Amino acid sequence: MENFFPVLVVINVIFFLYFVVVNGSYILLILLSYFQTKRSREKVDIYELSGLFGTNLYRSVSILAPAYNEEANIIESTRALLNLQFPDYEVIVINDGSTDSTLEKLIDSFELAEMDRHVPKSIDCKPIRRVYGSRKHPNLVVVDKENGRKADALNAGINVSRKELFCAVDSDSLLEADVLKKMLISFMEDDETIAVGGVVRVANGCTFRHGVVEKVETPKSFITRIQAVEYLRSFLFGRAGWDYFDCLLIISGAFGIFDREAVIRVGGYLHDTVGEDMELVVRMHRFYRENEIPYRIRFMPEPVCWTEVPDDWTTLSRQRNRWQRGLADTLMRHRVMLFRPRYGRLGFLAMPFFLFVELLSPIIELFGYIIFTVSLLLGAINFTFFMLYFIACVFLGVIMSVIAVLLEEMTMRRYDRMKDVLVLVIHAFLENFGYRQLHAWWRFKGLIDYMKGRKEWGDMARSGTLGNKA
Amino acid sequence: MIEFLNSNAELIIRSVVLFLFFLTILVLLMAFFSRWKLRRRERRRTRVTEILGERIIRYASGDIPIEDVQKHLQKQQDYTVMLEIVNQLDQVLGGPEKERLQELMEVESTRVYFENRFRSGEPVFQAKACLWLAKRKSIQRDKISELMEMSSAGDPILAYAASYALIRHGSREEKRAALRNVLLNHRISNMAVNDLLHQLTLLGEEYHRFEMETLTQFVADAEIPPGRTALLIHVLNEMEYFHSFEFLKEYYHNEGGKHDSPEVVEAIIYAMARFGYEEILPDLQELYVNSKHSEVREAAAWAMGFFMKEESIPFLKWLVNDPNYNVCYKAARALAGYPDIDMSRIRHPNISDGDWNNLTGEIRMTEMKGGI
Prior knowledge:
The complex is a heterodimer of chains A (470) and B (372). Chain A is α/β, with parallel strands linked by helices and 470 residues long.
């Protein structure tokens, strides 16, 4: 048996090196995020914007909110969308064949009436049954269509939309009132901007009134608190860091602004993927690079969208499984971009990172646990070494999460109480014991499911957080 | 290597863990320290905003002397807050109140603060100092030459802010030169240029004659890229500078009407139609209806609908079958404007009956709402 020890040691060394590379790259992303966030904040109040709104020469926005069985939140979230501070925008809610009372609630609350609206088939989508206009809100349009999933609903919304830009949001999300104005800065900074992503934050635990966040608090349950830390990490140093390199590969499906023509040009959202948000962004990168058209895809660390996250383990596991399948699918579809000079930093930096770090990490992590346990049981490594290694992983995880919380403090500072920050720091520590391993398992299952060809979304239960009252 | 790792693995990992342990403690301490610091700064900012906001409003109304504001300007942060408040008030105040605000920009301590930023060499700080200069009543001549240099800077934010200040304080020629720099700077977006043009139009010099002349001069400037030329024509049109009509008419016949850039052709068609130049009709019907650029066909359809002449009807019916939806929509809209045309009898081989009904229904509804 001892003949296998050198092999086990080599494998452990490989894991260790992987661990160093992954965490090294995260630390680099943290540093870059800090500078990028600081730079972005300083620029934000330079442009006056007032001049723009004096004429018809600025870009207008359609907000697309697909809704499938969203009766718990739909009224509150639509009302919030109608209260944004922006002079020229329309809200298009797309009822994607809901089987609950989503449409009826919309019709009653907003006094909808059927209207004629010719919808050009710029992008393929399932048939639209009816288009409704609101007597109360002239800028609200509700589209009732056959069920075709989120990507299809967004494509229908793009076809219905008449504005230059569209903002894709989830119906269970709430935008802060000035987000459109802030996001427009990116398009104003550079004419070549074709898409901009903003920050998505966890709404669970917060109090909302009339579609406006009134009190920001950390969520109440363990599972949602862990997700609050994850979201901070993902947005504040993941995306801001990639923005530094001009290599942003994901704009969250919950909140992003796109140039409508640019999206139509690449064919809109794909129907047969579960990661349509990432896939679209990668396809846009690919198209513009291949056709040598100058473009920019940006991330703005300030504009905030609040979203309800799953508060039960089953829904969360389904969501993470789907995200992993979506990631795998996107990377497979666009594997041609890997290590090809024509795709620049995307091909040599972002795509390999997403492949080796984001996609394969659950396999390596789970395999690592097994090998480590086997090595321990066979005596190839001793218990002290095993524990020390584990502690090192925990410390690194804590450092990164704490820095994410710190970045939140330096940028948006939405958590007012010290208690909330402490709660996040404690959960950044606790997530290493059990949740992290479980998360790796869900993602690993996601990869297996992807290989089996599973493409369904799975149900998402809504608690109606965004509809709560103070 | 393996031998080394075997014998020293524990030592290595112990060192890593120890390092990470101290790093974690350090990060935690820093997190709490910075939170404490940030919160202190934030609380102070809130307090300063409240106090300065109230003082500045009272000072602008003439209730209190400038010294009452000045004594609250103690730290760097206070100046930033003051500029933010002044920027907000600047948009709503006028007359003596606005003049008092400008005097506030002249206070010695404010001047020193922003002067340092102006010289910092950091584009974002310099840009903010330029905005401060823009808010002042007047600025020294030596600043103008520096601003002029900055208006051609590679950094779009700095170029934008410097031009903004020059539009407020420069001579006519300097304003023109700054705007030209901006128009030639491809890194500045059309929306930002439009913002500056709007500032120019707010000056209202000689009933907008200066602005109009400046814009027309740029339209004729061969070095200005076509995208910008189209924007300038759109601005002349949007701002309803009817005095520019003669120039635009000449430009249309000499250059604009057959420009290589469809953006310019589209812009000039809209402007000519809005200014009521019916002589454009033969070109619309013969030339632009068959343009290979959909935006030109779309503009032609709109313009024909604007003039609503009988002879345009066959051309509009032709455009209803255009493969581009926007052209088809504009043509249908134009046809719907004719009192004698029954939209249900228009042939639409490329559009299904259901889609056609939706299209005409939508047009009817938009007209009822008074949309254009």
